[in-house]
Amino acid sequence: RCAVAALVALSFSGAIGVTFLMLGCALEYYGVYWPLFVLIFYFICPIPHFIAKRVGDDSDAASSACRELAYFFTTGIVVSAFGLPIILARVEAIKWGACGLVLAGNAVIFLTILGFFLVFGRGDDFSWEQW
């Protein structure tokens, strides 16, 4: 029951994040769809974690080199997702208001992704591996 409520809350927050992203692109005042390239970062963000989980050893060590490398790559992906709209606004490909909406959407989406892994990534009876 709690997992279903968490899944509903995560899907709601994901929808809010994508709404911010779409508002930054589709409002008539902004009207440029370049910020949609951050969707690529949303999709590749969990990939280092999946690879580290699959490749890394199953020991209960506090940290491993594989996991730390996955954190490093994930951090690079997240920073790049925040940097892309700022660069696009600096070269005047998009307006600064659109940049703000995309940054707000990024914050919500990445917090949603983090929330998903915190709720379903524990490896207990109900985990994301079942999905």
Automatic annotation (TrEMBL):
Provide a GO CC annotation, any one: endosome membrane
Record's bilayer topology term: Multi-pass membrane protein
Compartments (UniProt record) = Endosome membrane; Golgi apparatus membrane
Sorted UniProt keywords: Endosome, Golgi apparatus, Membrane, Transmembrane, Transmembrane helix
Lineage: superkingdom: Eukaryota
Q: By its UniProt entry, which InterPro entries does this protein fall under? A: Vps55/LEPROT (IPR007262)
GO BP: late endosome to vacuole transport via multivesicular body sorting pathway; negative regulation of growth hormone receptor signaling pathway
Per the record, the major location class is: membrane
KW Membrane (keyword) present:
yes
Which Pfam families has this protein been placed in? Vps55 (PF04133)
UniProt protein name: Leptin receptor gene-related protein
Question: What is the organism of origin for this protein?
Answer: Chloropsis hardwickii
